[in-house]
């Protein structure tokens, strides 16, 4: 048996290597199957990696490895004085991909841009319900149907977005996946053939790679787009080998069955680092884990009580126990990699003695509270239960007895929103578009009370600052407003800010030029592999 | 025989309806709903939530939802996945060949090793062979599949590098999936080495999936053989001077096989359950993994349709076992 398998394996390997020499192939062990291939329909990062970052482009793009915006399909743009008109000049001669299922007859123009957005915005658009129950999650979630008044074609290569109100993060929003630009010609052809749903199964765009085939739950194949407007990619073939188990991904990397993979188990990182053929770069993730007090309920309505509890909890101990060090303590609600991060903010120090005194001064004795712990592992908090146990022990030391509660994930999300929620709820957030507004207003603004604002915290001063920043187009000015807002946040302490986790990306040393992305995307444009 | 068949098939109808109700109700009993699970941390406003639920038809009374689901089923419509927007039946048949291929290999391993091991253990009752087989069976039966799979990967793929880590075939091979069975498709393709690659990918997952059925079959065969070996007719056969091989192989084994065949039939359910974990470990694109993902996403149509289809397969296999049972044991037919 053993010699038979050895023979089989050896034969397969020899043959495999023999056929591999001809083309440069990069295999990425991805963590899950994409939900579909129309990025505007979905919200998962896995889907974006597989569909939008490979096949499509957007009007503006995030710079590789940063949250800054750079020209994409639009080579330039103008914003009107009042911040409500955005006019984009499209790059000329951008070709859509030629595949075995579609041959384009024209290059990119304003019609493609209008088609890509209007299908999401207008319920009477023929493509609005091309798949049953299409809810255009991101576009609706970000309020695009209310925000965008009209999109007009000025000429073939000029398109103008008119907004109902000024919205500073709008440009960053257009770099997000749901704003990927599709080919109207391809869509028309599908419609004519009565195969509309193919748009979600065989994507076709202008991006660096073109779609070849998808075998559900197993493998997605792409090849380099020879007509890509930034030039052909260094690799010829890109393969996503879908491997859901993190330990198995690690084994596959060691066996060189794939050359790069995301989300290793914290426990595997050391052994991967010690392998001489591998490297394990890391970066702080664009995320935050927090515990939100219900600031509308006594005694958590008192700032000094919240501050005292924050000082009673040893964050470093949580990071050591849960992340084995692969995270940094958080002091602000936005991560350090984000622009406007205020490093001058001083965190509440870990000081149980002082915390005890502060509670006493506030007249709080024998406090018993609930700590809500998520039932699932999230990138910003790998083990909420363990973290809650450590908090429970810390709080015990200052005379606060804590009970840990948890619910099934869907129910947890629902119940933790309730305005009359009892106790402090642990949760977190991963940034969507690199704009501070996506953390500060989304999670802490007055409009989000009863929703994303799990602290039910509506502070006039804070809210005025973030609302003003939202309608200011000058980034330096916005940054100042956000810095002030972070000061107010720390002073009023609606949350215990817990951590920003570190993201590891193990890879073979032969992989060149891979940039870790602060937004958590896995992009393979410009990546090369040494032979 | 005809009456026997008709009565067996007739039982399937209420079973089918019962399973469809359970499958329909089960996923809805779980807290959370598809809209919320898709949104994750992002809060969906109550109005939007209601609008999407309406769009999906989940705001109607449960009885109405069930009846329209049943009506669809009768017309062969198993619904459309909320997430991938593809037909449930289409997804099922894309993925099912992978599960079937793996389960088939596993059951072949389990039967080919389990039955002889059980027979020998019974014949050599109390010997070191008997004790080690039964010890191994107990260990195999109690083995957590997840751990066992990872252990084999680390040993055979990691340390010894004899087998590939996961997947169905080396990614360097690429050919159309005519049947969905990788062994057949790779043979039909003109790519050299594809079949061996597919075969080498099948070894570890088949062993892992075969472990529990193998243990059960070996134990069942042993106890059935022991019982039969003590019967009068076996003693008579021995007394007639028949060879030991003939006594064990023909007189004893044929009778002992009746409960064993039932056990093998029942293992199909165990295989389906085991496939869920095995497929997750070995990134095997089958229906087990598909079902688990869909439960997490509260993809109602997929979970209820998938459960129903799996139940139908198990029902079908049990029917075949019942018929086989009748072939092996004429008394069952008569009864």
Automatic annotation (TrEMBL), chain A:
Residues 68-448 form the Solute-binding protein family domain. GO terms for cellular component: ATP-binding cassette (ABC) transporter complex; outer membrane-bounded periplasmic space. It is found in: Periplasm. Its main location: periplasm. It holds the Pfam family SBP_bac_5. InterPro entries: Peptide/Ni-bd, SBP_5, SBP_5_dom. The keyword Kinase does not apply. GO terms for molecular function: peptide transmembrane transporter activity. Residues 1-23 form the signal peptide. GO terms for biological process: dipeptide transport. CDD domains: PBP2_DppA_like (cd08493). The keyword Signal applies. Keywords: Signal. It comes from the Bacteria. PANTHER family: D,D-DIPEPTIDE-BINDING PERIPLASMIC PROTEIN DDPA-RELATED, PERIPLASMIC BINDING COMPONENT OF ABC TRANSPORTER. Belongs to the bacterial solute-binding protein 5 family. This is ABC transporter substrate-binding protein. It comes from Jiella avicenniae.
UniProtKB/TrEMBL annotation, chain B:
It is found in: Cell membrane. It is a multi-pass membrane protein. It comes from the Bacteria. Residues 96-325 form the ABC transmembrane type-1 domain. The chain crosses the membrane at residues 9-30, 63-83, 95-123, 135-159, 171-188, 194-217, 256-282, 302-328. One of its GO terms (molecular function) is dipeptide transmembrane transporter activity. It comes from Jiella avicenniae. This is ABC transporter permease subunit. InterPro entries: BPD_transp_1_N (IPR045621), MetI-like (IPR000515), MetI-like_sf (IPR035906). Coiled coil: none annotated. It holds the Pfam family BPD_transp_1. Keywords: Cell membrane, Membrane, Transmembrane, Transmembrane helix, Transport. Belongs to the binding-protein-dependent transport system permease family. SUPFAM superfamilies: MetI-like. GO terms for cellular component: plasma membrane. The lineage of its organism: Bacteria, Pseudomonadati, Pseudomonadota, Alphaproteobacteria, Hyphomicrobiales. The keyword Cell membrane applies.
């Amino acid at each position: 048996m053993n010699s038979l398998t050895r023979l089989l394996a050896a034969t397969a390997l020899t043959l495999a290597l023999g056929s591999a020499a001809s083309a440069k192939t990069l295999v990425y062990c991805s963590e899950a199957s994409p939900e579909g291939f129309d990025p505007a329909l979905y919200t998962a990062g896995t889907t974006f990696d597989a569909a939008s970052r490979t096949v499509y482009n957007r009007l503006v793009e995030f710079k590789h490895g940063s949250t800054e915006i750079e020209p994409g399909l639009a080579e330039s743009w103008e914003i009107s004085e009042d911040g409500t008109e955005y006019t984009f000049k499209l790059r000329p001669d951008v070709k859509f991909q030629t595949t075995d299922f579609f041959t384009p007859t024209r290059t990119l123009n304003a019609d493609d841009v209008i088609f890509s957005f209007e299908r999401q915005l207008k319920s009477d658009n023929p493509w609005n319900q091309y798949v049953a129950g299409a809810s255009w999650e991101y576009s609706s979630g970000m309020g695009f149907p209310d925000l965008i008044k009209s999109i007009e074609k000025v000429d073939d290569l000029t398109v103008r977005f008119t907004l109902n109100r000024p919205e500073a993060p709008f440009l960053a929003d257009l770099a997000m996946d749901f704003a990927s630009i599709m080919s109207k010609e391809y869509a028309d052809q599908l419609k004519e053939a009565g195969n509309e749903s193919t748009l979600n199964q065989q994507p076709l765009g202008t991006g660096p790679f073109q779609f070849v085939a998808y075998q559900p739950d197993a493998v997605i194949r792409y090849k380099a787009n020879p007509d890509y407007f930034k030039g052909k990619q260094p690799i010829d073939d890109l393969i996503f080998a879908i491997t859901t188990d993190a330990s198995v991904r690690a084994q596959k990397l060691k066996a060189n069955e794939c050359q790069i993979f995301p989300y290793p188990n914290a426990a595997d990182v050391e052994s991967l680092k010690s392998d001489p053929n591998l490297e394990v770069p890391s970066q702080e993730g664009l995320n935050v884990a927090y515990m939100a007090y219900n600031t509308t309920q006594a005694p958590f309505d008192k700032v000094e009580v919240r501050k005292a509890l924050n000082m009673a909890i040893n964050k470093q101990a949580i990071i050591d126990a849960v992340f084995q060090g692969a995270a940094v303590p958080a002091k602000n609600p936005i991560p350090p990699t984000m622009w406007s991060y205020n490093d001058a903010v001083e965190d509440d120090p870990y000081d149980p003695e002082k915390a005890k005194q502060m509670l006493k001064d506030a007249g709080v004795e024998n406090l018993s509270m609930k700590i809500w712990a998520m039932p699932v592992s999230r990138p910003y908090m790998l083990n909420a239960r363990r973290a809650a146990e450590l908090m429970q022990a810390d709080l015990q030391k200052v005379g606060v007895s804590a009970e840990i509660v948890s619910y099934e994930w869907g129910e947890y999300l629902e119940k933790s929103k309730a305005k009359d929620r009892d106790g402090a709820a642990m949760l977190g957030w991963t940034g969507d578009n690199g704009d501070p507004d996506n953390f500060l207003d989304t999670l802490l603004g007055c409009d989000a009370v009863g929703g994303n604002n799990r602290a039910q915290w509506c502070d006039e001063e804070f809210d005025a600052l973030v609302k003003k920043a939202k309608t200011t187009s000058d980034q330096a000015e916005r940054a100042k407003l956000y810095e002030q807002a972070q000061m107010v946040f720390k002073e009023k302490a609606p949350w215990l800010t817990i951590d920003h986790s570190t993201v590891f990306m193990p890879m073979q040393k032969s992989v060149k030029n891979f940039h870790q992305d602060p937004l958590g995307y896995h992009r393979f444009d410009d990546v090369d592999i040494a032979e | 025989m005809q009456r026997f068949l008709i009565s067996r098939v007739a039982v399937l109808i209420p079973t089918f309806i019962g399973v469809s109700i359970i499958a329909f109700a089960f996923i809805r009993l779980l807290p959370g709903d598809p809209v919320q699970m898709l949104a994750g941390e992002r809060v969906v406003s109550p109005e939007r939530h209601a609008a999407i639920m309406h769009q999906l038809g989940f705001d109607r009374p449960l009885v109405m939802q069930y009846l329209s689901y049943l009506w669809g089923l009768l017309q062969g419509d198993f619904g459309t996945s909320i997430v991938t927007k593809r037909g449930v039946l289409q997804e099922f048949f894309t993925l099912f060949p992978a599960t079937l291929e793996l389960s088939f290999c596993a059951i072949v391993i389990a039967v080919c090793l389990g039955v002889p091991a059980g027979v020998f253990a019974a014949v050599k009752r109390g010997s070191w062979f008997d004790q080690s087989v039964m010890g191994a069976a107990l260990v195999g039966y109690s083995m957590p599949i997840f751990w066992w799979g990872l252990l084999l990967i680390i040993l055979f793929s990691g340390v010894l590098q004899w087998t590939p880590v996961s997947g169905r075939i080396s990614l360097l091979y690429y050919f159309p999936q005519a049947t969905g069975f990788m062994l057949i498709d790779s043979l039909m393709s003109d790519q050299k080495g594809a079949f061996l690659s597919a075969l080498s990918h099948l070894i570890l997952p088949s062993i892992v999936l075969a472990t529990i059925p193998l243990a059960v079959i070996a134990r069942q065969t042993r106890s059935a053989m022991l019982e039969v070996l003590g019967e009068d007719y076996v003693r008579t056969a021995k007394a007639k001077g028949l060879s030991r091989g003939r006594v064990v192989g023909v007189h004893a084994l044929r009778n002992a096989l009746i409960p064993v065949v039932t056990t093998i039939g029942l293992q199909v359910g165990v295989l389906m359950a085991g496939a869920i974990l095995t497929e997750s470990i070995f990134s095997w694109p089958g229906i087990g993994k598909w079902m688990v993902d869909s439960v997490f996403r509260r993809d109602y149509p997929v979970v209820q349709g998938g459960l129903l289809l799996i139940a139908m397969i198990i029902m079908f296999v049990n029917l075949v076992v019942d018929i086989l049972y009748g072939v092996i044991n004429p008394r069952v037919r008569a009864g």
